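Ticket #4471: structure export looks truncated?
Reporter: QA, pipeline team
Priority: medium

Steps to reproduce: submit the single chain below to the structure queue and open the exported record.
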Amino acid sequence: MSTPAAEDVAAALVAARREGRSLTRFPGVVPASMAEAYQIQELAMSRWPDSLVGWKIGYIPADRRTVGDPDRLVGPIWRQQYHLSEEHLSPAVVGIFATGFAAVEAELVIRLSQDLSTHDGSAWTAQEVADLDQHLLVGIEVASSPIPDINSLGPTVIAADFGNNNGLVLGSILADWPGGAPVQLACYVDGQLIGEGSAENLPGGIHHGLATALNILASRGQIVRAGMVFATGAITGIHPIGPGQHCLVEVRGGPAAELRTAAARTLMRS
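Actual output as written to the record:
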């Protein structure tokens, strides 16, 4: 059951995001638990005027989570903030909160090809989700929030504010996965290489992360449909970015995704 305080926080977060403006601080008392954080997230999602296309998955280090809590958090990805690089003649333009928090993350993205509306009630395992009908794609997560210090405030604040997500850009399917060597990603900002890595950089791997996310969503009653995407975590790091910059993420010897940033407030007015 929601509380007036949670409703107020959700309303403030949604208003800031819809208006493309930043906040000086978290608009309320920092949630004391992930359960409280997801309550705020659910309330904010109910106010958001868009359809859900998937979820971002973020890793929570051991020293930043309560004993017994999952090592991942999730946040919604919305259709109007979801772009396919191959559909654009030029890089997709994505909004960031220029005076809030803004970064890009090179990611491997899993797109499921089947509904997961039913399960036997037990927790998903990494092996079970690895066996699901799915595709792997290269992507760029836009990690941006109206709250400038969102990451330092901790995982409950990150989860409450849509998982610190403000968009996802996808490249092509990696047709030869899952066989072969680990997929190597490189991330460039304005033509400068700023990070490299593979899925081996993610604790537990991408399927452990996806299994954890599916268990969180199941506990919240969120249904996963065929075609939904899951950004599995920052592989090359969390790279700060400002308005007007260009980001390219490529698979070594394979496809790429790219974007250009703009101030969210400017996009709201266009």
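Status: closed, not a bug. The export was complete when the record was re-opened. Leaving a note from the reviewer for reference: Residues 4-269 form a domain with the Fumarylacetoacetate hydrolase; domain 2 fold (CATH 3.90.850.10).
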